[in-house]
Predict the 3D structure of the following.
Amino acid sequence: MARTRAYKSDVKAAIHETAQDLHKAGLIEKHTMRRFDESCLTPIKTFTADEIRALREREQVSQTVFAMYLNVTKDSVSQWERGDKRPAGPACKLLSIVAEKGLSAIA
């Protein structure tokens, strides 16, 4: 089964996927499932322009290469680093993973 979420560990992935199945079957309530989400999934952080630039520079890649890894345009990365726009959704999730585990985690 292909995973579309970023888990803290393989064990937590297995636990969370089991809990999801139990939730779909009506055996786990919604508020309990939220607690599983919080404990098993990688948290999503919001990033400032300076933090995004520092993260890219820490990974020693250009804006173009960083954009390719994140599957966004180079202009998006440039706008984030200038503070003109803020990353959202999947881009924030990928930035959180890169911040925690490095660029190789999403390569």
Observations:
- The chain has two domains: 10-40, 49-105.
- The first helix runs from residue 10 to 24.
- Residues 10-40 form one domain.
